[in-house]
Write a structure and sequence with these properties.
Elements: E1 2-7, H1 11-20, H2 23-26, E2 28-34, H3 37-47, E3 51-55, H4 63-73, E4 78-83, H5 88-92, E5 101-104, H6 109-156, H7 165-172, E6 180-189, H8 197-215, E7 221-227, E8 230-237, H9 242-258, H10 260-263, E9 267-272, H11 282-293, H12 296-299, E10 304-305, H13 316-333, H14 336-351, H15 358-376, H16 381-392, H17 398-438, H18 445-452, H19 456-467, H20 471-489, H21 494-500, H22 506-517, H23 521-528
Helix pairs in contact: 3-4, 8-9, 13-14, 13-15, 14-17, 15-16, 15-17, 17-18, 20-23
């Protein structure tokens, strides 16, 4: 509904206009009236009307002055002038202020309604145009952001080998006209069981706020976006601002470090890739930043890493070969303790390597974890490896990486052991069900083996291991328990009960019952029936 203000120094004119118009049919309402220009300007400021109907001649601030000031305050305000014949030529000068309607005194209802309909139509069309333009702008911004997100994704997945300036602008909406390009990574390390999505959201919001206020103003263009536990930034700036950018990034980390208590239990580190003077070198800046941020594993968190030391020369394949031999024995025996031995041997080899780099240690442990998952031969292999890599990425020290790997080994070996034990128990469960269902029949061990699909010798072994007694003794106990129930809860004769629980000889049944309960069936019924 459009809002209307009426201004006239004669109250009766205001009332007349209010009475003449059919406001409901126009989908309008009069939200205020004023007797002079000063009051009218206060209403324009406080009520933000869509339409202003004003007299030309008023004390203090006349119609022309009111229109000029009201248009400054609200450029989209639609205006209708009220004037007499003597003032008509004067009123025409209001065209400079985009006045949309004139009402000559005495005001007629038909003219008033037509004028209001015209002004209402213009106001709504302008509002619709604004909404359309705003929607287009938002869609454009959204597409712009999506393209830049794809740039980051392609860099992380190493799909972008040697981009040109033209490619960055055309395909990723990242417009660069020379200068330097540099990637930085903000890394968060935390306990995934104690640190939730809300904590990450708070960290993300704060980091983006600092980036926008402190770093982006120094750049020609830039972006910053989070992926899981890391924020990735791409900057384009003038070469003369290299040191200023470096200081801003260090301050970025320092500000977040001093506010860590807001985010919970978390460790933060920052790495900067090489500043590239050509678009083709952007991927290299990303790779350098990724290797540099891994240094926190051996050097510690809470620091700014700007370079990567030379590789240590670690023979990863040789170390993994030794690890594989021991881990195969752990898997064959399903022993978590032997898996620990395999990891201890691997870490012992690592300890002898001088100057091992963080990324080398990370890749070694990740490769060992993948090896374990493959050798376990589980259906969810890819999900298990992905989950392990995500947890490993949250480890900010060598000790935490070791603990993560040890837990990974133990948990997965224990899961496989439980699965295999359950597989062994399943035929026993089927056998028990078969015995309960057929205990009234003259069943044999061979009958049960046929039902479970095992050989008599193997079945007898695993059945006794799981139940603590042999097949015959277990069957006898089931039959006697069934007999006790019938003696207590039915009026069947002992002879009938003997047949119902699988015995054809009453004397044999009675003797067996007494052996199991220290009383014959008749005594049991008298005592418990």
């Amino acid at each position: 509904m459009l809002k209307v203000i009426i201004v006239d120094d004669e109250p009766r004119v205001c009332n007349l206009i209010k009475m003449l118009a059919d406001w409901d049919s126009l989908d309008m309402e009069v939200v205020g009236t004023a007797s002079n220009g000063f009051e009218a300007l206060e209403l324009v400021e406080s009520l933000s009307p869509d339409i202003l109907i004003t007299d030309m001649r008023m004390p203090g601030c006349d119609g022309m002055e009111l229109i000029a000031k009201a248009k400054e305050m609200s450029p989209n305000l639609e205006i209708a002038l009220v004037s007499g014949y003597a003032e008509f030529d004067y009123a025409r000068s209001a065209m400079d202020f985009d006045v949309g309607g004139y009402l000559l005194k005495p005001i007629k209802k038909s003219v008033l309604m037509n004028t209001l309909e015209k002004l209402g139509r213009k106001s709504r069309e302008r509002a619709e145009t604004f909404r359309t333009m705003e929607s287009l702008r938002q869609d454009s911004d959204k597409n712009h952001d999506l393209l830049r997100e794809r740039l980051l994704e392609d860099l992380l997945q190493r799909k972008l080998e040697s981009p040109s300036y033209e490619k960055l602008e055309k395909e990723y909406s990242f417009s660069i006209k020379g200068g330097l390009l540099q990637v930085f990574i903000l890394k968060a390390d935390y306990n995934y069981e104690k640190f939730g999505s809300i904590d990450i959201a708070v960290l993300k919001d704060k980091a983006e706020e600092i980036f926008i206020n402190s770093i982006l103003p120094l750049c020609r263009c830039g972006m910053f976006s989070f992926r899981n536990a890391a924020g990735y930034g791409i900057l384009n700036f003038d070469p003369g601002k290299t040191e200023e950018i470096r200081r801003a990034l260090r301050n970025f980390l320092n500000q977040l470090e001093t506010q860590k208590y807001i985010f919970g239990s978390i460790e933060l580190s920052l790495a900067i890739g090489k500043a590239a003077d050509r678009a083709e070198e952007l991927p290299g800046s990303m790779y350098m930043a990724q290797d540099a941020i891994a240094e926190r594993i051996v050097e510690g968190t809470g620091r700014l890493y700007e370079s990567v030391m030379a590789a240590s020369g670690i023979d990863t394949l040789k170390i993994l070969e030794k690890y594989n031999k021991t881990i195969d024995r752990a898997i064959d025996t399903l022993s978590a303790d032997v898996a620990d031995e395999a990891l201890d041997e691997l870490l012992g080899e690592v300890a002898q390597i001088r100057g091992i780099r963080g990324y080398e240690l990370f890749e070694l442990i990740l490769a060992a974890g993948r090896t374990l998952a493959v050798r376990l031969n589980v259906k969810e292999e890819s999900e298990i490896i992905q989950g392990f890599e995500e947890r490993l990425n949250l480890c900010g020290s060598a000790k935490k990486i070791e603990a993560c790997m040890r837990d990974f080994q133990r948990n997965n070996i224990n899961i496989i052991r439980e699965q295999r034990e359950n597989e062994a128990i399943r035929p026993i469960r089927i056998a028990k069900q078969y015995i309960y269902s057929h205990s009234h029949e003259p069943i044999t061990l061979e009958d049960v083996c046929a039902a479970t699909g095992f050989s008599p010798n193997y079945f007898s072994t695993i059945f006794k291991k799981e139940t603590g007694e042999g097949f015959s003794k277990y069957l006898t106990r089931v039959r006697i328990e069934r007999a006790k129930d019938l003696l207590q809860n039915t009026s069947l004769s002992i002879s009938e009960i003997c047949n119902k629980v699988g015995y054809s000889d009453l004397k044999h049944f009675t003797g067996t019952f007494k052996k199991m309960t220290d009383m014959n069936p008749g005594q049991y019924r008298k005592l418990f029936g």
